[in-house]
Amino acid sequence: MKKRMIIVTALIMGTLGAGCVSVQASDTLPELTKDNALEQMMKAGETDSLVSNHKSYEATCEYILQNTKVYDYEDSEVMYVDMYGTTQMLYKDGELKYGKEGDEYLSCLYIDEADGNADDLISFYTDETIEEEVTDMKEDGDTIIIQTKVPEELTQSALNSQGDGESYTEGDWISMEYVVASDDYRPLKHTQILNHKDGTSEEASKMEFSYGVDRSEDVADLCEKYEEAEKAEGDVRNVTVTAAPGTELEKDYAITVPADNHVWIMLHDDSSYYVLYTDKECKELHEPEENVKGDTHLYAEIRSYEDYEETEDKV
Prior knowledge:
mainly beta, outer membrane lipoprotein receptor (LolB), chain A, Ubiquitin-like (UB roll), 40% strand, DUF5104 domain-containing protein, signal
């Protein structure tokens, strides 16, 4: 676990663009046209709206070329993310609060002050969605199918951000198929197709949505473990981090967790990172241990990303 966990569920990109067929959804929604489809679809994909309108949702994203999956669940109280079946994260009030890596449960200790901005997933579309070009749009029963083409520059950046190293090959281009509900334009299925210069194509990723669903066993388990950790007593360990030691900004941050739990050290500030030390003079770097037991006191220098060095943060 490096620095700070950030949800990146929708690497499946964007949406639409311009002119032709029109579809009427309901008396309360604008008529869907190729000119406004992007705007309306992105608005309907905001997670706050999905929760308020449907109580809960779950989304499963399968990255076929990488053979990995990401699962999201959200209701009015929590948001849960399972990254690739290896890391589970629980969010409350816009903050990552608890998690699990393999068999290890982890609480979160923030060593700066919250800025009031929620860091959970706010939409199933990205800022680049608006750059896509609509190629077709049609009604199909109670759904609307919207097909788009992703610009070449955006295709390159998207492919090279997925997996390890350079994934883009000259002539590749991405097309998207979005299936949305005709009554409120909420997302039902996204499919990303990778097209090649030689005319062949392959399904690269797909995301499917369900609404009004109950918490799965994994979600319920992590919620239960989080509540237990919040009320930890008896066999416990204390983790303290002194931020900016020896300066006027020096401040202690502490958390008490069950003795067999680890702690993720976190920052709210995306423009900064930290380095952990075992001594107040910040000379001896902290080396993470696999089986952490007992109380821990560490010291953190918070730095600007201009001189970033990757460091471990699990204690």
